[in-house]
Amino acid sequence: MRYFLLLLILWSTTNLHAQTIYESPVGFIFTFDKTWKRLPKEVLQQKLKDVKEFLEYRKDIQYDACYQKVGNADMDYPYMLFKNIYATTTDEEQIKKIKDYFTNKPQFDKVMQTMTNGKFDVELKIGKNYYDEKNKILIFTYDMGISIKGNLVGLNAFCIGKSACIQVCSYSYKDEFKYDQKEFLDVIYSIKDKGMKTSMRTYLDKHDLAVSYYNQGKQQSELGKREEAIRLYTKAIENYPQEDNYMKSEAYFNRALNKRYLNNLRGAIADYTEAIKLRPNYYKAYNNRGYARLLLEEYQLAISDFTQTIKYDNYNTEFTNMALGNRGIAKFALGQNGCDDLKKAIDNGNTNVVNAYNQYCR
């Protein structure tokens, strides 16, 4: 009994302090609590137009990731958008130019307060700007002047690092900003700067080439040209620098998808496995590898993959429902009871397994 209670305490403590980590390609690390999730790159690309009129877009700046609250619709507020900037400085005159760049914009206040203790221990006021000289972080708050189910405000942090800079663009409803700003600042001040192993020039050359191959591969895949898509995704994988592991995992995932369409299930499984090595919580890769294993009648391995899908997706997308349905089917193939999984899948909107449920569970 005492051993059980100890395990329960350890489990509770582990979940209480569970964290989500974002590692930027340019060397920054930020920590979230488990109430935040990273949106898929495709969603970020589709939704960028929502903030386009408020932020500058230049070739030397890359939007890399967006995090939002678990359970919210895609890019519903609050969310945090990370923007890599491929340059840095330690010169206070250059930092002043960055300050001026923002404060000269009509939506930003002209005055910037300097923080000297390296910590924001006061409530931020909408429309005020702050400079943390110790940590080289500039923070700008402003009323966005638009309303989507409520007036919107922004909190932009510009962090100056060893190898590059990063801009953290945080958005909230005005009525909730008093509460959301604490979470925004907790994430911003979790920053660690490990720098880059690859030189910036080499990184940009390899990154731009890999992205070009990746985008061409995606185009060929959409046209159904599987072999050509595989060739281009292979080129992307070969060229992504080590800082781009997140994007490299997507190239492996998409190459696997095209291999599966060619019925190369073993090749697809190998690529999904590489994607998971680069991104251990890649629930889509677990799901698709599980499906390939299901087709190969490797039922126990498939069940394991579907279980990982459910664990990491945690009922946030349709992948949980697919995994529940397919796990139930794999269990029946092994002579186990898969009715609970099928019922959960149906209850959450998976209509593809209704016939299987009626056949095995009625």
- The average pLDDT score comes to 85
Could you give the count of β-strands?
11
Q: Strand order within the widest sheet?
A: 3-4-5-10-9-8-7-6
In the CATH hierarchy, what is the class of the largest domain?
Alpha Beta
Task: Note the beta-strand portion.
Answer: 15-25%
| Domain tally | 2
* Residue windows where pLDDT falls under 50 for at least 5 positions: 1-17, 52-60
What structural class is derived from the secondary structure elements? alpha+beta
In summary, what is this structure?
By secondary structure, the protein is an alpha+beta fold. It contains 13 helices and eleven strands. A hairpin with a 4-residue loop joins β9 and β10.
Note the main attributes of this structure:
362 residues, alpha+beta, Protein Transport Mog1p, Chain A, Serine Threonine Protein Phosphatase 5, Tetratricopeptide repeat, 2 domains, 8-stranded mixed beta sheet, 3-stranded antiparallel beta sheet, 13 helices, 48% helix
